[in-house]
Design goal:
Helix content: 25-40%
Number of domains: 2
Bound molecules: guanine, zinc ion
Distance between the termini: 19 Å
Largest sheet: 9 strands, parallel
Structural class: alpha/beta
Mean pLDDT: 95
CATH superfamily of the largest domain: Metal-dependent hydrolases
Shape: globular
Number of helices: 15
């Protein structure tokens, strides 16, 4: 089913060229610098897409491509690399914006009941299609995704992503304790399921497998050890989990793992900290954790919308940056309240501002594109508008309506313009999304 208000177009348009304002990053922006040299701004340029779905070239607007190219003149719009949502739950879309609780209670009241329904293959297939179409309708072309504990839900997600040609990193969720009936696995069966899914999906098309530990409280030490063995057996796998999100969660982890130095140390001891590791949240990391994290190469997915909504806390991004720990951006829907990466980035700005820190549009947008791709070791394929990389793209209106149109008119420099766009825009500004050169989302005419 196509996302509401959208038509899905699966037609291949070989040798297509798009004319728009191109923005991406060639380096990592420094914190607090609105005039960063890491920004690559190419206003009014053609981006050429080859028939292999990759970016074939970029050239100025006054140098039109030859007659073999189908030209799509989108002058006055902004073309970005497709966003990468570094942490999101496909089965929680329908409990987005559920009232009244903090993390542990929210899981039991809202997340777990929704996830239990994904044991049914039909529910899982429909949910996966709805979720991926919704991502595309928000400009996100890649994501690191938690489906559910059920193998069928991982299969459904990989199948739907494969059909769309999307770069998805995902894995069956591991949880063998402290979860309700219908949502627990066991070590032996979970190990077999992971191996089967890895064999069928890891590296097939654009799918990649992530060993997916929900969080320390829902896995026994034996299950954590099994996850560590999987990662040791194949270092090309990814790893994802949650860490240090909420203070009650932190106390619980201390009770469950008294020998561990910290919450992060539970994962370190099990051999789970991995250079392709994505750890969501990391608000309440403890002393000694940052060098461990940095040395492992794993990074933190900053989930500001979720952290505000669930009252979890305020991440201090510069502390991580100073320690050399990478940060990506993530919606964490259904804890987060929108799949829109701009809304997520805007919340990220607010969270940093509450701590007296200023997040530039450059650091924010970089973390949702090239920065996330680098952390996932996928930057030779996604995250930039560079010849040879996949044509995963999103095309945006600079303004929708009089207020942001006026704000754009009076912006005095590039950072002011892009920052105002980041703070004021959302999925309503999205005109179209391409995955591997195929336009999979186009806004319906209103
Ligand atoms: N910690 C463990 N599971 C979850 C989840 O589903 N969402 C969030 N935000 N935190 C978690
Ligand atoms: Zn999460």
């Amino acid at each position: 089913m196509a996302a509401a208000g959208a038509r899905r177009l699966y037609s291949i348009a070989p040798m297509r060229a798009i004319r728009a304002d191109l923005l991406d990053f060639v380096d990592t922006p420094v914190w607090g610098d609105p005039f960063s040299a890491a920004v690559r701004w190419r206003p009014d340029h053609w981006l050429l897409i080859g028939d292999d779905g990759r970016i074939a070239g970029v050239q100025p607007g006054d140098h039109p491509p030859g007659p073999e190219w189908t030209c799509d003149d989108q002058r006055g719009r902004l073309l970005l690399p497709g966003f990468i949502d570094a942490h999101v739950h496909s089965a929680q879309l329908e409990v987005i914006a559920s009232y009244g609780t903090e993390l542990l209670d929210w899981l039991h009241r809202h997340a777990f009941p929704a996830e239990r329904t994904f044991a049914d293959p039909e529910v899982a297939a429909a949910g996966a299609a709805r979720f991926l179409d919704a991502l595309l309708a928000h400009g996100s072309t890649s994501a690191v995704v938690f489906p559910t504990v059920h193998k069928v839900s991982a299969d459904a997600l990989f199948t739907a992503a494969h059909e769309r040609g999307m770069r998805i990193v995902a894995g069956k969720v591991l949880m063998d304790r402290h979860a309700p009936d219908g949502l627990r696995d066991d070590v032996a069966q979970a190990g077999r399921d992971c191996i089967d899914l890895i064999q069928r999906w890891h590296g097939r098309g654009r799918s990649r497998y992530a060993v997916t530990v929900r969080f320390a409280p829902t896995s026994t030490p034996a299950q954590l050890a099994m996850a560590g063995e999987l990662l040791r057996a194949d270092p090309s796998l990814h790893f994802q989990t949650h860490v240090a999100e909420n203070r009650a969660e932190l106390r619980w982890v201390r009770e469950l793992f008294p020998a561990a130095r910290s919450y992060l140390d539970v994962y370190a001891r099990a051999g789970l900290l991995h250079r392709r590791g994505v750890l969501a949240h990391g608000i309440w990391l403890e002393e000694g954790d940052l060098p461990v994290l940095r040395d492992s190469g794993a990074h933190i997915a900053f989930c500001p919308s979720s952290n505000l909504f669930l009252g979890s806390g305020l991440l201090d991004w510069p502390v991580l940056a100073d320690a050399g720990v990478g940060v990506s951006m993530a919606s964490d829907v259904g804890g987060g309240t929108s799949l829109s990466m701009q809304r997520t980035l805007a919340d990220g700005y607010r969270v940093q501002a509450l701590g007296g820190r200023r997040l530039t549009a450059w650091c924010a947008l970089h973390a949702a594109t090239r920065g996330a791709a680098r952390q996932l070791q996928l930057d030779d394929e996604i995250g930039r508008l560079e010849p040879g990389l996949m044509a995963d793209l999103c095309l945006w209106d600079w303004a929708v309506g009089a207020v942001d149109a006026r704000r754009q008119q009076v912006a005095r420099d590039l950072h002011e313009k892009v920052f105002a766009w980041m703070m004021l825009s959302d999925e309503r500004h999205l005109a179209a999304t391409w995955v591997a050169g195929r336009r999979l989302y186009i806004r319906s005419p209103s």
